[in-house]
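## Example record

The block below lists the input lines for one assembly entry, exactly as stored, with component labels intact.
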Amino acid sequence: QKEVEQNSGPLSVPEGAIASLNCTYSDRGSQSFFWYRQYSGKSPELIMSIYSNGDKEDGRFTAQLNKASQYVSLLIRDSQPSDSATYLCAVKPWAGSYQLTFGKGTKLSVIP
Amino acid sequence: GAVVSQHPSRVICKSGTSVKIECRSLDFQATTMFWYRQFPKQSLMLMATSNEGSKATYEQGVEKDKFLINHASLTLSTLTVTSAHPEDSSFYICSARAKGAGTNEKLFFGSGTQLSVL
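Predicted C-alpha cells for the full assembly:
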C-alpha cells in the first residue's frame, strides 16, 4: 500500500523563525509532490508543487525533494502567526495519474 | 484562479436520511472530479473518482451503493450519502481537474462539507 508519512506535530516555532516540515513516501515511482495548507474546517490550499530533485523556492516557501531518499520537505521562512495551520504532503503516484495520496498532515503553530 | 463551489458547507441530518452534496466548477470544465473524506485529525482519503459521463471508480472499502456519485455534466458532480449513519459524519471535499489539463496541473478543491449525522 502506498503511504505518505508525516509527523503529526504539533510543531511550534516562534514568529520570524524557519519552520521545517518533513514528509516521506513509500512508492519509489512517485512523480509529483505537493504541499497543501489546511486551516481547521476548511479545504486544502495548494502551497507548492515540486517534480524534480532539488529545491524550489516561492516567496517564503521552499520545497525540497530527494527522490533517492524518498523525502520531501517544506521550509517556511520568517514564519507568521497566519502560517499556523495543518500542512498536508501529497504525492501523485505515477506520471499518468491524477490521483493524490495525502499524508495525515503536520500541525504548525507559530507563536507570536 | 479556478473556482470550485461546494454546497452545502454544513449539514446536520437524522440517521437514515440521505444527503446530497454538490460540487460545481464555476469557470472551467471539469472532466474529472475526486471525492475525499476526512475524519478529525486524519488525512484526506480518496473515496472515488468520477469522469464526466461515465460511472465513478470507487476506492477499496467505499460502498458504491451508499455513496452515489453522479457526474452528468462537465461542471457538476454530486455525492449522495444514502441512509446516513453517525459513522458517516465527516468532512467531505471534492476536487476537480480541468479539461485539457496535463497530469501535472493542480487540482482545484471545493470548500468542503461538514456532515453530522445524529
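Chain B touches chain A at residues 6, 32, 34, 41-46, 49, 91, 93, 97, 103-104, 106-107, 109-112, 114 (CB under 8 Å). The longest strand of chain B covers residues 30-38.
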